[in-house]
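User: Sequence recovery, please. Input:
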């Protein structure tokens, strides 16, 4: 009698593929949230494995804050075209013009404004399940998530009103107006993601690797100097060799000083890191409950 053993990454891959297939079996109009970031890049490869030789049976959806790194948008558009997928982009700028998203006085970051923009897109296309690349190890609020995250008729999340997932049995039923978010990478870590990228030889945007960038020190981290984030009086602009660990709004995405030029370099760096991945995101540092508050309102 032969036994079949799968390693850690194979188990995570199998689990994620199962969740992706469950989504397509249970929902009529799913969408995949694709930003071009490392987690959603892994999701695309998993979707290829789940559904090939058929095409990926759902459109890609991206909420563009207008504050994205240009390298990320270029990668997003090119990968969607290479895969022959339908890419839907909804811009926060347009949502502001239409009164869907309303900036608070003095608000610079547009991360919060992604929420009404996303909910409007879900309503526009009547998506009943949105697949995202969130992982439980990223942040305290995301650690409360399950594979299938129920959202009420207002697109909001109540961590105390989620469905049990005993023995990997999922209750995916929703009433009209309600929806789900699905997170196939829930049990993955940052290390798992990069090991999978190495194993599958996946291309990632160049800003994940070391490069020279002008930065200023603000809020205890290095932030990239751009037209959207000019230096303040008295701030010293320094050209550093940096990379990003997690990519969000260009205004709040911190850079880390790093010589990492390969995936192996990144894996070694993560193994030695003492700061969490999202520790370099200024928008998460604004308060301990910042992410949970945004998620309750309808964030990814």
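Assistant: Recovered sequence (300 residues):
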């Amino acid at each position: 009698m032969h036994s079949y053993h799968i390693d850690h990454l194979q188990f995570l891959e199998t689990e994620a593929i199962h969740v992706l297939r469950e989504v397509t079996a249970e929902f009529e109009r799913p969408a995949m949230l694709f930003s071009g970031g490392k987690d959603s890049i892994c999701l695309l490869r998993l979707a290829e494995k789940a559904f090939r030789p058929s095409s990926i049976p759902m459109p890609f959806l991206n909420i563009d804050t207008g504050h994205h790194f240009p390298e990320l948008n270029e990668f997003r558009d090119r990968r969607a075209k290479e895969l022959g997928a339908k890419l839907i982009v909804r811009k926060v700028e347009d949502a502001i013009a239409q009164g869907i998203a309303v900036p608070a006085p003095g608000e610079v970051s547009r991360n919060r404004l992604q929420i009404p923009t996303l909910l409007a897109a879900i309503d526009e296309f009547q998506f009943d399940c949105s697949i995202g690349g969130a992982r439980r190890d990223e942040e305290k609020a995301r650690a409360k998530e399950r594979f299938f995250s129920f959202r009420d008729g207002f697109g909001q999340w109540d961590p105390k009103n989620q469905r049990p997932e005993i023995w990997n049995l999922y209750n995916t039923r929703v009433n009209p107006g309600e929806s789900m978010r699905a997170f196939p990478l829930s049990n993955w870590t940052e290390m798992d993601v990069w090991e999978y990228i190495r194993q599958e030889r996946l291309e990632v945007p160049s800003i994940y690797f070391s490069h020279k960038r002008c930065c200023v020190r603000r809020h205890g981290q290095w932030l990239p100097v751009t037209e959207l984030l000019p230096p303040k009086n008295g701030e010293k602009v320094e050209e550093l060799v940096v990379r990003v660990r997690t990519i969000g709004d260009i205004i709040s995405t911190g850079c880390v000083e790093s010589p990492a030029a390969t995936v192996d370099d990144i894996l070694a760096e993560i193994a030695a890191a003492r700061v969490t991945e999202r520790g370099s995101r200024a928008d998460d540092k604004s308060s301990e409950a910042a992410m949970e508050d945004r998620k309750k309102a309808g964030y990814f």
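The chain has two domains: 8-193+289-297, 205-284.
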